[in-house]
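@channel sequence for tomorrow's demo:
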Amino acid sequence: GVGTILDDDPMPTLSINDVSVTEGNAGSTGAVFTVALSAASGRPVSVSYATADGTATAGADYTFTSGVLTFSPGQTSRTLTVTVLGDTVDEPDETFTVNLSSPVNASIADGQGVGTIMDDDVNLPPVADAGPDQDVLVGAVVVLDGSQSTDPDGHMPLVYEWQQTGGTPVVLSSHSISCPTFVAPATPTVLTFTLLVTDALGLPGASDSVVVRVSDEAITGLSAVSSSPAVVSETVTFTATVLSGTNVVYQWDFGDGSILQNGPIVTHIYWELGGYTAVITASNSVNMLTTTVSVDIVSASQEHRIYLPLIMAIGNPSEGTGARSPEKFPWPIGAPLRPPWLRGM
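structure tokens (generated this afternoon):
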């Protein structure tokens, strides 16, 4: 007869451990996982396995691995190796998993092993680039350019922080973008700014600075006119114009010893007859131009009377042949041709 021994032992279970491995700067490192049976089995046991991405990426951080582990009767553990790829990029620790499936002659108790790739690289600081120094005109819209700032480890995006450190205060469109804008002041000045960048892991780098020189627009096309000819002691108006130029200062030399620094429209009184040459100088921080204008000062018609003596001998026929002594009468030029002694007749 045949005696049959019935197996009443419980089916063993399979489990896989978690593994941590240092990444390394080059080449590869093996992450060795152990798959264990809870008890020896008299039967062959097998289980399938395959890796899956977590924060680590197959092909970049580790090599995708899959297969089947087989336990011979009485064997209680087997190992499998996942290749971890080294690099010099500083990055956070990353993970992947090894998942068990399709067991034969066993069940799965813990079917997922976590592989942790520990980064051993040093995080290098980002490099700020505030752009080239600039020369701009007063009132211009200026763009600061920090777009060439980089991070050697590729920890992007960068966090930007702009600060003005010198010159007339301006208002930036933003302090925390790569390319903020502002309007240059209305008068010449030198502006300085610094840029600090921080990588995506929170590591700041050294700051970089940029200088913006703000200057006037050069003066061109200076010309001047006056209300000449004018009567002596009356007001003469002068007007100067330029085709271009900012913050223009005018100096007026009226040609009679009087000099005035004022705006483009001025007045002046000449107290003597004659011709004068007024010299007008326009200047700013960039250049200076000079022009002239002729001024004629004339007398007013009949405003100044000249009295000449008029000597006449006057006699009265009724007084015989005697004659009166000559008398003098002032006779203003331009007065009516009527002798003073006849007025009232």
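heads up for whoever presents: The two ends are 190 Å apart (CA to CA).
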